[in-house]
Design goal:
The protein is of the alpha+beta class. Helix 4 packs across helix 8.
């Protein structure tokens, strides 16, 4: 390769200028590339000569020695125009002509890459402290490993292995120092002067190739080689002072706003001298980021990001102390100090002074790395409180290690009540999926607790930690990449949560589970409503029923005492148990001997409206059957409660024929926009109400209907750009038609039957039909179809009844007692009874 040798000689000829460091020359097909680097810069310069053509220069050095640069390019020009001395080795490779093209190397705009790293890679400026402490921790871990080698220089170093952080709010300085391996001048250039060059990763690869200390390799954190530059999110100047045992020279590295850097021997020792080895990073915080030069802010961030890393992290703090007692007279005078004088001394404010001390921030040990048998309940409680900031004991825990395709360790907790972080999230409308407190660590360094979209929302109450060495992170280490490994971890967490709930729910002592259900049962209901693992969550449901005497029961208990001919699980929806007991359909269920579950909250209404099915056994030795959960107002309940004897069937058929005309007229009066059907129901005979709203598979519960209307309202407001709370010209929500059932034994329905038989009572029938329908809607929990119309109709009816009452006052008391008259809205008697 005579051409390459010539290039190498030409470059070495420039060596006396001490401005260029030779990197080497390579050949690729029809081109030759010479790589050099200015001594004062880390940017590599590439000069390429293409076969039988000129040359080009690609440089990203922020500054260069013009004279040396001209010398270099002149030497190249002379070489490229000299008679060719190429051998067969330098001739273009076969097939490297125009048709096949040539292999080119990617190039980058270094300044632009640095701008992306600093301004676009990280979403939160606070992560800089995590990156600096992680780097420092890696340096200390390297020293610990190297000190274990035979004849290691680090074995003689006596300084503690520690990371220390101090804050100077007056000068806006943050100092992060470690007693690790330090760096030589070359390592400063390679690690801090080269983007995406991770010294920790190279060190870990060396360990892997030598088969040394696998556990230590896995404890090393760095991997991307860009975290250091995140400091420029908050700083306008960075200074690194370092010292390595390999050189025993203290170097200082300085960079302003990431626009290049300088390295020189630190002879001034402006930032102090380093003993033996280590690194000190001085961050000059910008004025617009002054909040980070507050010691309390830094302490919170250290607690958040470095609470569980293996290397001790210490923060320099101040504490108040009392000055030494003043000298007193010797002998008898010392014994004569009066109590009054002591009290006065305690009150002197000037007796207080402050001293500096180092407090360990990460004193909480990562107990999930230990064997569960070696961890006490008190230690688990302490970890639970550290994560959730709660003061109660957890109801359940799960501590496990997963091995196989993905390895990780995890501790999960079930709290005794709704955690504070969930109530705060609810008040800020951020939603439970954002507020999950399952903290994710990679090699004990906190990454995130935002598990949104990774775990189902019903698990929002679960807290804990997950620590893995295998998780794929993005370069900023703020977000997880959705991969198979992450899916496996999330599935394991979900399964372990279900196992904890199963253990509690099947415990003979139901105290803890009932406490969980009364506080956090809504999350289980929401999970079933969303369709998330609904089959897995059904066994955790608990209800009170008309036969449970106020105690919570599970669906299996309900099924075990069902009558042999009962085919469904029945429930009644209402705002309270008192309202549920007033349901017009409940008496017929009790008469039939059916147990009815109470459903008294809207989340439960929504859940039950999903037409869920549950598999259970009527008796312990019985065959497993599948039962659907049905509202007592549903068609399924109607069908199950139909009379079996011939006499009752005949009576029901006769009543259906008798009231057919009335049902048709009422259906016509109400219109298809309000009514699906008007029916006669013998189930209402003992209810004492004239009419009720029935539901079938296509009708919504009151709770579901309210939510649907609210969503429609929000969509309409958004479509016309209205602000929340601004109803403006709000479009009227469409009314959802209902099915109305009539009680054939009630006096009002009998009277309406009389009105339907002649045209004289046509207007009265219309008014009565409207009132009956609206009152049935409200009794079922629905909103009136037209509130104003209903109120006006009620006012008119009461007014007419008041007038008719005054007219009847002239009648004798005997007549009033012996006869009851039902007066229509127009004043004439509809029905009279003695």
């Amino acid at each position: 390769m005579s051409m390459i040798n010539s290039l190498s000689k030409a470059t070495r000829a420039l060596k006396p200028s001490s401005s260029w460091a030779y990197y080497g020359a390579t050949s690729a097909g029809s081109r030759y590339r010479l790589m050099v680097r200015p001594v004062t810069s880390s940017a590599v310069v590439g000069i390429t000569k293409r076969h039988k053509s000129g040359y080009n220069v690609a440089s990203h050095a922020p500054s260069r020695d013009t004279t040396s640069w001209n010398q270099l390019t002149t030497a190249w020009r002379c070489l490229s125009t000299s008679p060719s001395t190429e051998t067969e080795d330098q001739k273009p490779e076969s097939g490297s002509g125009t048709g096949s093209g040539e292999t080119m190397a990617f190039q980058a705009d270094v300044a632009r890459v640095m701008d992306i790293i600093i301004n676009s890679l990280y979403s939160h400026p606070e992560v800089f402290i995590r990156e600096l402490v992680s780097n420092a921790s890696d340096a200390v871990d390297k020293r610990r490993l190297l000190s274990q080698r035979a004849d290691s220089k680090f074995a003689q170093v006596k300084t503690d292995m520690v990371v220390r952080v101090s804050v100077d709010d007056k000068q806006n300085l943050i100092i992060v120092e470690d007693t690790g391996v330090g760096m030589t001048r070359k390592e400063l250039i390679d690690n801090l002067g080269s983007i995406a060059s991770s010294g920790t990763k190279r060190f870990a690869e060396q360990l892997k190739s030598k088969g040394e200390n696998k556990d230590m390799k896995e404890s090393l954190i760095g991997q991307f080689g860009v975290g250091f530059y995140s400091t420029f999110l908050v700083a306008d100047r960075m200074v690194v002072v370092t010292k390595s045992l390999d050189e025993n020279v203290q170097w200082i590295w300085t960079s302003d706003r990431a626009k290049g850097y300088t390295i020189k021997e630190d002879t001034e020792k402006k930032y102090g001298e380093i003993d033996s080895c280590g690194t000190r990073v001085i961050v000059h915080v910008r004025d617009d980021q002054a909040e980070f030069s507050n010691i309390f802010t830094i302490k919170d961030l250290l607690k958040k990001y470095t609470e569980f890393i293996s290397v001790p992290v210490q923060l320099r703090e101040l504490r108040a102390v009392l000055k030494a007692d003043k000298e007193t007279k010797e002998g008898e005078e010392q014994d004569k100090v009066k109590e009054k004088d002591k009290a006065e001394q305690k009150q002197e404010v000037d007796d207080t002074e402050y001293e500096e001390y180092w407090s360990t921030v990460n004193d909480q040990k990562p107990l999930w790395l230990r064997n569960p048998k070696d961890v006490t309940p008190e230690e688990y409680t302490e970890l639970f409180r550290a994560i959730t900031k709660e003061y109660e004991h957890p109801l359940a825990k799960s501590h496990f290690a997963a091995e196989g395709e993905v390895e990780f360790r995890c501790v999960l907790f079930v709290p005794a009540r709704v955690p504070r972080y969930l109530t705060e999230a609810a008040s800020s409308n951020s939603g439970p999926s954002v507020a999950m407190k399952i903290k994710l660590y990679v090699k004990r360094v906190f990454i995130t607790d935002q598990m949104k979209g990774m775990l189902p929302n019903w698990m929002a109450f679960v807290s804990g930690v997950v620590d893995s060495d295998d998780l794929p992170l993005n370069v900023s280490r703020e977000m997880l990449q959705k991969t198979r490994a992450l899916n496996i971890i999330c599935k394991q967490i979900e399964r372990k949560t279900l196992s904890m709930l199963t253990a509690m729910s099947e415990d003979p002592d139901q105290t803890n589970y009932i406490k969980f259900w009364e506080s956090l049962g809504g999350f289980i209901k929401a999970g079933i409503t969303e369709g998330t693992a609904s089959k897995d969550l059904l066994p955790f449901l608990r209800f009170k029923s008309i036969k449970s005497d106020g105690k919570w029961i599970k669906l299996g208990d309900y099924i075990s005492r069902m009558p042999a001919d009962q085919k469904h699980i029945f429930y009644v929806t209402a705002g309270s148990r008192a309202e549920a007991n007033a349901s017009p359909y409940l008496k017929s269920m009790i008469k039939k001997g059916c147990e009815v579950l109470y459903s008294t909250d809207e989340v439960e209404h929504l859940m039950l409206s999903q037409m869920i099915k549950y598999t259970g056994k009527r008796t312990p030795d019985g065959k497993a059957e599948q039962f659907s959960l049905e509202d007592i107002t549903s068609a399924a309940a109607d069908k199950e409660l139909k009379a079996d004897d011939q006499e009752s069937k005949a009576e029901a058929k006769e009543e259906k024929v008798k009231y057919k005309t009335l049902c048709d007229q009422m259906k016509k009066i109400l219109g298809s926009d309000k009514i699906l059907d008007v029916q006669i129901s013998s189930r209402l005979s003992d209810s004492g109400v004239p009419a009720a709203i029935a539901r079938d598979a296509y009708n919504m519960s009151p709770a579901m209907e309210k939510i649907l209307k609210l969503n429609q309202k929000m969509q309409m407001m958004q479509s016309r750009g209205a602000a929340p709370g601004d109803d403006g010209d709000e479009p009227k929500m469409p009314f959802i038609p209902k099915t109305l059932q009539l009680n054939p034994k009630h006096i009002i329905v009998e009277s309406m039957l009389e009105l339907s038989k002649n045209s004289v009572g046509e207007s009265e029938l219309k008014e009565w039909t409207t009132l009956l329908f609206e009152t049935a809607l409200m009794r079922a929990g629905y909103e009136p179809s037209d509130s104003n119309k209903f109120i006006n109709a009620m006012d008119e009816l009461l007014s007419k009844q008041a007038l008719d009452g005054g007219r009847n006052q002239s009648k004798t008391k005997t007549e009033a007692k012996s006869k009851v008259e039902l007066i229509g809205p127009s004043g004439h008697v509809i029905k009279s009874s003695k």
